[in-house]
Design brief:
2 domains, twelve-stranded antiparallel beta barrel, 65% strand, 1 helix
């Protein structure tokens, strides 16, 4: 007579646990891939053609949206569409390349999905601050005494409407107690975004290079910019403008002139693993002495180490067709740097 109530109680407890487990699983978000695979977890966001889901078995997983057949979320999300419409407290449902907003019942082509759970700046609230500080140092003693120091600072403040950029870099090297390199550059930019993908901006820059006989060069001028491509696998941005340039030399005659100037920046995550291939070039074309062109190009590969620390291998080519007498037109630098990003 005693066993029956005990067995009934155990059966009820097991049924409760089973119902709870089923409810917990059913409350999770689900992504169904076109290959038939199913991922269960919590969808945390989506941007640039990638949906992120947090799972119990593998942590965060990023899934390319073109590999997704269906998505069903249980918790409310903030959804930003390509036309800047914001849908709040809406579940995200994707079915056969269509976006369904459960809160409103509206259906959109999947291409209209811009960002899921956007950051405040993407909603027009303030700025996003990103940047990097890099350092490359070297020292050798014995038969040859050398000291090398390269530094770089890159910081950006971005809103929906505009962007501020501040950059600084330099190099100071010694060999046998004598300077072998001593150069620096500081630049500031302001960009105002027009109808995508175009923008206009203003550039101000100062630089010096003791071994190019350059005490200081100042440049200021407006430019027009365009984001030609903006995908993780390939991003390309270009700027073309006009500027006023003044140059003060240590021994040569000082100069000032009008110039055309350009900037190119390209990057790619093709190698994967959060690494990035990149190319950065800026140039100045003297419009009065048209044979004089200054071109600085950087080819690099950056890759994460741990936390927010990254390493990068770079090749720098600095060309000045109007270099003063006795100075080489081309400087080449190869370096490995370590930096902190945010």
């Amino acid at each position: 007579m005693l066993k029956s109530p005990v067995l009934a109680w155990l059966a009820a407890l097991l049924a409760t646990v089973a119902v709870h487990a089923e409810t917990t699983e059913s409350a999770q978000d689900e992504i169904l891939l076109k290959n038939g695979s199913r991922i269960v977890g919590e969808v945390t966001g989506s941007r640039e053609g990638v949906v992120s889901i947090k799972t119990d078995f593998a942590g965060k997983i990023d899934v390319a949206i073109d590999q997704i057949k269906a998505v069903n979320t249980q918790n409310p999300l903030v959804i930003l569409l390509a036309d800047e419409t914001v849908e709040r407290d809406s579940s995200l449902v994707i079915r056969e390349d269509e976006l369904v907003l459960v809160g409103t019942g509206y259906t959109y082509p999947l291409a209209e999905l811009a960002v899921v759970n956007p950051e405040p700046w993407e909603l027009g609230q303030g700025y996003r601050w990103t940047g990097a500080v890099g350092l490359a140092m070297g020292r050798q003693s014995g038969n040859t005494d050398t000291n090398e120091l390269d530094y770089r600072v890159d910081s950006k403040w971005r809103s929906k409407r505009d962007r501020y950029t501040l950059q600084a870099n330099g190099e100071s090297d010694e060999a046998q107690g004598a300077k072998t390199a001593d150069n620096w550059r500081v630049s500031g930019k302001y960009d105002y975004f027009l109808e995508a993908p175009n923008y206009v901006g203003l550039l101000a820059m100062a630089e010096g290079d003791k071994f190019q006989d350059l005490d200081v060069r100042y440049l200021i001028g407006p430019y027009f910019g365009r984001q030609f491509y903006n995908e993780p696998v390939f991003s390309l941005e270009g700027e073309l403008g006009f500027s006023y340039v003044t140059e003060q030399f240590n021994t040569a005659e000082d100069d000032e002139y009008g110039a055309g100037n350009w900037n190119l920046y390209a990057s790619s995550d093709y190698l994967g693993g959060d690494s990035s291939l990149y190319f950065d070039q800026n140039g100045i074309w003297n419009l009065e002495e048209t044979s004089n062109i200054i071109v600085n190009s950087t080819f690099g590969l950056s890759f994460p180490l741990l936390w927010q620390i990254e390493a990068a291998a770079e090749m720098l080519f600095e060309y000045d067709s109007g270099a003063v007498e006795g100075v080489d037109d081309l400087d080449q630098t190869y370096r490995l740097r370590v930096g902190y990003t945010w």
